[in-house]
Design goal:
Number of domains: 2
GO molecular function, one term: nucleic acid binding
Domain Integrase catalytic: 74-233
Enzyme class: transferase
Pfam families: Integrase_H2C2 (PF17921), rve (PF00665)
Shape: elongated
CATH topology of the largest domain: Nucleotidyltransferase, domain 5
Strand order of the largest sheet: 3-2-1-4-5
Protein name: RNA-directed DNA polymerase
């Protein structure tokens, strides 16, 4: 039977969405229709109908995770832009701490970690002001996830008063805070190796870890975080045993002049190396790009893997 164009939607509704279709895929829907009907561009219409079926899309979820082009952000000076995050909860330590707060500089990759009893906005803001701003100066920009403590009025007002711009990760996309998230994983793996059986001494191992993390060369800058931050390397406990060549004696003025020239060279090197590393990472990342992007005001599906309690996960929309 040849179907008039005006009746095509009725046929598609009946043989895909209705009781005769049961929301089967394109191939099976097309076979059933072709056994009974004919119209021009039948396959294209069936494919388009099944693809736009909201019930099918909601239950199946994304078959291929879309991936857009990687956006780069290159900083030009130490403590110009920092990332902040809170990890936990962990077993309450003997000092009463349950979380650790991480602050990391995007330029030097220098990390600071503070064990804290809670993740309230007032606690986080107090640590940020007294332990970061008062020691390293106020950054131009602070980047965080969308945690309630970072989005709170207290934290926002602290940033406003101190004159720093607050940015946040994209919704449902914590990878845009990848530097600090990766650091958290490294620290947590280390703590899992060294804590006692009761796991109540985890906060005592943070500072030794930081000494070890700050002293080796960072792959994205090709210098150590300590050298990028201070213009000199850290003296490690092992150096007291093996010994290191002493610096030539000089006056404070000569040392300051040499340090100034050295730091300028360090900054140029870190900027150049960072840009090269970022571009290589972008090239690798964009090879798997499969998203054409979206226009403003476009309607999109939101993949939500969370499941409602009391309902079968297999019978819920994705």
């Amino acid at each position: 039977m040849v179907v008039p164009k005006a009746k095509v939607p009725d046929v598609l509704q009946l043989y895909h969405s209705g009781c005769s279709g049961s929301h089967l895929g394109v191939k099976r829907t097309l076979l059933k229709i072709r056994e009974r009907f004919y119209w021009v561009h039948c396959r294209d219409d069936v494919d388009d109908w099944c693809r736009k079926c909201t019930s099918c899309a909601a239950v199946k979820g994304p078959q291929i995770r879309s991936r857009g082009a990687l956006k780069l952000y290159n900083v030009g000076a130490p403590w110009e832009r920092i990332a902040i995050d809170v990890a936990g909860p962990f077993p309450e330590s003997e000092s009463g701490n349950k979380y650790f707060m991480v602050v990391m500089d995007y330029f030097t990759k220098w990390p600071e970690v503070f064990a804290i009893p809670n993740q309230e906005a007032s606690t986080v803001a107090d640590k940020l002001v007294h332990e970061i701003f008062c020691r390293f100066g106020v950054p131009l920009e602070i980047h965080s996830d969308r945690g309630r403590n970072f989005e709170s009025q207290i934290f926002q007002e602290t940033c406003r008063v101190m004159g720093t711009h607050k940015t946040r990760t994209t919704s449902y996309h914590p990878q845009s805070d990848g530097m600090v998230e990766r650091f958290n994983q490294t620290l947590e793996r280390y703590l899992a190796k060294v804590v006692e059986k009761r796991q109540r001494d985890w906060d005592k191992h943070i500072e030794p870890f930081l000494l070890s993390y700050r002293s080796p060369v960072h792959e994205s800058t090709s210098v150590t975080p300590a050298f990028a931050n201070f213009g000199r390397e850290l003296r490690l406990p092992a150096d007291l045993i093996t010994g290191i060549p002493p610096d030539a004696p000089c006056s404070i003025t000569d040392y300051a002049n040499d340090l100034r020239n050295k730091i300028n060279d360090i900054y140029e090197h870190v900027i150049q190396t960072g840009q090269q590393t970022s571009q290589k990472m972008k090239t690798r990342y964009d090879r798997k790009m499969n998203s054409k992007g979206f226009d403003e005001d476009s309607l999109v599906w939101l993949h939500n893997p969370a499941r409602s309690k009391g309902k079968s996960p297999k019978l819920q929309a994705k």
